[in-house]
């Protein structure tokens, strides 16, 4: 789920002229698959990878609904985006006979995904994670020694979040991710579609709006790592990337992540083939490559997200598999929630509220 929209476009070219016309067009979150593995794919298959990136599910959704996207592989979050896109018949069924690595997938994650994609007919799970609180440990302590870093109050209570305005606060630019958390903070159903409850969540967000430096779904990674902000509400893997970058910087900073004690969203990012994909055979080969344990493990090591590939787990360092930020404890797992898609009217209302919050109107 997450990462930067740098408008970057790179291609991994075929190794010989015999493969010059073969390609696969991938539209993905940036830094969501190890780049060196893309080169391996081209070396193994002779298929060039045209790789473009986005930083929100809303951007991907708009591209797909416009039609003739030209993409062969895309990576939507299962709920509510994949669900709505499946209802709109935007994907073609998978030919599982072409996916020799399909058996590597975790049955538990597959069962969760099947709630949204019956029979796992159209998508494979890629990475999964949580949405929570990332923070600069010393800067937060300096301003509030007893800061409730493991609570949603850290970002939704104006009396608390205002104390960190000077060192910088950023929040995801995604109503799909933020409204459920605000509802959870209010002890309401995070999956609520009730207009009155969404209005209450919007009031919570309007109250903290003066203290939010920016809404963005990727910039907070470098901002947190570089000391430009001290607090972020974002994706677990993004915060881990910020931590790693901060640890390697000339001026080291201690970055931490907390899963809110009230509960956090569990998301599953999937890979699927859009209807009308120009290169469906190459798309299946790319999906099968993503299911290779080495590829999944390398990508987990890069992103800081848990993958859905059982054999890949043995290839990962214990610092990843035993990190509760990446693989939550049983207690934390019990507090995770998922959300379901709303109808078109409900989606428009949430978007309207989100626009009003961001613009301060």
What is the radius of gyration? 20 Å
Low-confidence stretches: 3-21
- Count of helical stretches: 17
The run of helices and strands is EEHEHEHHEHHHEHHEHEHEEHHEHHHEH
CATH secondary-structure class of the largest domain: Alpha Beta
Give the total of beta strands: 12
Biggest sheet, in brief?
8 strands, mixed
Helix content: 40-55%
Instruction: Indicate the CATH architecture of the largest domain.
Output: 3-Layer(aba) Sandwich
Distance between the termini: 29 Å
Secondary structure category? alpha/beta
Average pLDDT level:
90
| CATH superfamily label of the largest domain | Periplasmic binding protein-like II
Q: What's the structural domain tally?
A: 2
* Share in β-strands: 15-25%
CATH topology of the largest domain: D-Maltodextrin-Binding Protein, domain 2
Report on the architecture of this protein.
The chain is α/β, with parallel strands linked by helices and 361 residues long. 41% of the residues lie in helices and 17% in strands. The chain has two domains: 9-128 and 268-326, Periplasmic binding protein-like II (D-Maltodextrin-Binding Protein, domain 2), CATH 3.40.190; 130-265 and 337-359, D-Maltodextrin-Binding Protein, domain 2 (3-Layer(aba) Sandwich). It has helices spanning 35-45, 57-66, 78-87, 107-114, 137-143, 153-156, 158-161, 175-185, 195-208, 220-225, 236-248, 280-290, 293-303, 310-313, 318-321, 330-334, 344-359; strands at 9-12, 23-29, 48-54, 73-74, 123-136, 169-171, 214-215, 231-235, 255-258, 264-272, 306-307, 336-337. The strands form two sheets. Strands 5, 6, 7, 8, 9, 10, 11 and 12 form an eight-stranded mixed β-sheet that branches. It has a four-stranded mixed β-sheet with strand order 1-3-2-4. The longest helix is centred in the last third of the chain and has 16 residues, at 344-359. Residues 3-21 have low confidence and may be disordered.
